[in-house]
Amino acid sequence: MEEVEREDVEYVQLQFTNVEGKLKSMTVHVSQIGEAIDEGLGFDGSSVTGYADVEESDLVLMPDLETFQILPWKSRGKSIARLFCTVCYPNGEPHEADPRNVLDTYLRTWEKEGYTFFVGSEIEFYLLKNGNPIDDGGYLDSPPNDKAEKHRTEMAIDLRDLGFTVEKIHHEVSSGQNELDFRYSDALTTADNIIACRQALKTLGRERGLDVNYEPKPIPDGMGNGLHCHHSLGDSKTGQNLFYDPGGKYRMSDLARHFLGGELVHAPALTALAASAPNSYDRLVPGYEAPVYVSWGGPNRTVMTRTPGYEVRSGSGMRFEYRTPDPLCNPYLLFTGLLAVGMDGVDRELDPGPPASENIFEMTEEERESRGITILPDSLHKALDALHADDVIRGALGEKMTETYIDRKREESFNC
């Protein structure tokens, strides 16, 4: 409350997401924020996808005070703040279909076992004006071909006010395409940052007369937008990277190799969380650096999961880069699933096999088959079928969340 007064905050947005990962918010005047913190704020859950039927519609938002941030824009000179919330039943019990609570609860389970799940993300997007890319720049271009440099830099500075650091910003391969890379953090914080970033970039772009487009494949002959997720396990007490072993195969610990084995075994089902829109499967096609096959490797960008620079990485730098996700995914559900399949690999001591060093797209079908390289689902329907049959991810998400997610995504797919 002292910060609210000091920053001249007029309104506070109480934020949460629906099952699809779409940001929802209830804006309250600063005079009501104390009551909202103490007792929560009621809303109609039946009007938000996946939460409630009309006859049992009363739900409550309970703010998470650790997520308080001033938003990087003002309204008539007054500051606006935000708090992420847990969606609860009227009796105070967290709702099973609240994606943020699903991830938070699952992470706490593994924290008790000594593990912290770290994630850093790269978010790609197009800057469009009147439906067209704002420039004809290419990968790592600079002005004059890159007309977005000033916009990107200003946006990255504004995002700093939301409490996280954008470590790298650059022009991507296609005209008008850009990338921002977040510094890694615990999975819940990174998921919050992705949600906040999507909202902020849209708002900041609109202030400049630009449309920020996150669609997986907004331009048919252009590169798709990815949300590559760099991830590792750390010791929950010391923060030490548990994926690194200087004497291990590929400089990985046994735990890391088994975790990777889980990612590969459960890849079809995990795709339903990572590539969650019908348009996602227009991106997952050969020739555009998006993954198509269940595979892993080092510097090879035709694989599903990379170990960036595993020949030289050490300490906290050892990680995996999961390349299937796109920016429309629900990061809370994705990170829950990603941790679940990795830990299943650890429990079962799954071996990922040798890395792929060749261009997988150029292999013959026989060559891929001989290497045990299978194909990812080529439609949302097929990915949802795999998710429905995957007991590990279902167990992590919970039955209510899993069924709600599958039902909503099948409906979305049928309507396209």
Describe this structure in words.
- The protein has helices at 2-6, 33-39, 99-112, 149-160, 187-207, 254-265, 267-274, 280-283, 331-348, 365-370, 380-388, 391-397, 399-414, and strands at 9-17, 23-29, 41-44, 58-63, 69-75, 78-88, 115-129, 132-133, 166-171, 177-182, 185-186, 211-213, 227-235, 293-294, 296-297, 305-306, 320-322, 374-375.
- It is an alpha+beta fold.
- The chain has two domains: 2-93, Ubiquitin-like (UB roll) (Roll); 104-414, Creatine Kinase, Chain A, domain 2 (2-Layer Sandwich), CATH 3.30.590.
- Strands 7, 8, 9, 10, 11, 12, 13, 15, 16 and 17 form a ten-stranded mixed sheet that branches.
- 45% of the residues are buried.
From the coordinates shown, what is the CATH architecture of the largest domain? 2-Layer Sandwich
- Figure out the total of helices: 13
What CATH first level of the largest domain would be assigned?
Answer: Alpha Beta
How much strand? 15-25%
Mean pLDDT: 92
Poorly predicted runs: none
* Strand segment tally: 18
| Sheet of most strands | 10 strands, mixed
Classify the secondary structure makeup into a structural class.
alpha+beta
Q: Please give the share of residues in helix.
A: 25-40%
Give the count of structural domains.
2
For this structure, the CATH topology of the largest domain is Creatine Kinase, Chain A, domain 2
> Ends: how far apart?
46 Å
| CATH-assigned homologous superfamily of the largest domain | Glutamine synthetase/guanido kinase, catalytic domain
- How does the overall form come out from the CA principal axes? globular
Q: Cα-atom Rg, whole angstroms?
A: 21 Å
